Structure formats: structure tokens, C-alpha cells
What does this fold into?
Amino acid sequence: MTTSGLPRLNEAAPDFNAPTTHGPRSLSDYRGKWLVLFSHPADFTPVCTTEFIAFAEAAPAFAELGAELLGLSIDSTHSHIAWMRNIKEKFGVEIPFPIIDDLKMDVAKAYGMIHEGASDTSAVRATFLIDPEGKLRAMVYYPMSNGRSICEFLRLLAALQTSDAHGVATPEGWQPGDKVIVPPAKTFEEANRRVASGEYECTDFYFCKKSL
It folds into this structure.
């Protein structure tokens, strides 16, 4: 990790072993699966409630992509359980994923979720995508005041999996089924050959797309 305490992309995600609403969980429990680890500032708060409802409703879509969900806040397991029951009672939504009890802030600090400019006692809205090998592949931070778009994390997860499977990149706003970006040519000869071949949809030698 860097001196700022933030984990780094394409390196091993910080390990953890923590109590949750579904019993103890560690990073190794998710080996072989994608993990979406996300923090929220506090239980029983309105923006967090909307996010948890959205994550719960999207849980089947994440599962279809081979990903599990794991929430976190600096609250107790009892508080988490009470909030989960409240969401079920008031909104009719079952929260199917575990929520980490991080009262000591061990996990939050390891993942750089505590930003003193926002709060020194609550985790910001951080989301981490961890691949089946335990490597951190993406991390996104939101301010306390604004909720995340859960659909974006589904899109990003699908994009990462597509890049891994096919050795390609994805353009802005890419959705499954859209054309992908071919890695740039590495030599002058390859660039000329690529443009002349007609194999790809090339705007110029460095910008070529194809369908999968």
C-alpha cells in the first residue's frame, strides 16, 4: 500500500477477517469469485438505505457475473441487523448479503475508507472490485452527500471480465454487446497492416474497434 494508506490497483487487496451479520468473513472466503466490497457512512441513514436497497435488488445480477456482495460500516452487528430488519419492514426489501461490523475500523483503515476531510469516525462511500485471485481491480469513492449508481458497478464488472477474457479495452459507457477497443499496434508495420486489412473498424491506426 502507499504511504497514504490507500490500496493500489492490480495489487493484492488488503486481507481481513471480520465479524458480519452472516458470521465471520475473510478475504480468502471469496477466493475464486469476484467480490464487491462497499462501505457506507452509517446505518439508519437515508442515502445509505437507498444504496443498500439498490445493491439488494441487483444481487441476482451480480451473482450472474460470479460476484458476491459484502457491505461495511463502522457500526455494530446488532445495529446492522436492526437496520436490515427495518429495511425489510419499511421497504419490503430483504438484504441478502453480509455487512461487516467494523467498530475498530480495521478494515476501513486498511482499504483507505476513512477520509478525515469528510469524517474521522465514518467510512466514506467506497466501492472495491476484487477479482477471483484476490487482486484489487477497481476502486471508486463517493462523497457522504451523494449516493452511488449501482448499475455502474455492474457495468464495470462486466467490462473488466470482458477485458480479461478477450485482451481488449472498453470505451466510455460500454455495455455488453457493444464493440470493444483493440490494443494499439506496437510497430509501424503492424499499424499499416491493421488499417489496410479491413479486419477492424479503424478511425486511425491507434483507434480500432471490433465486435466480439
Observations:
- The radius of gyration is 20 Å.
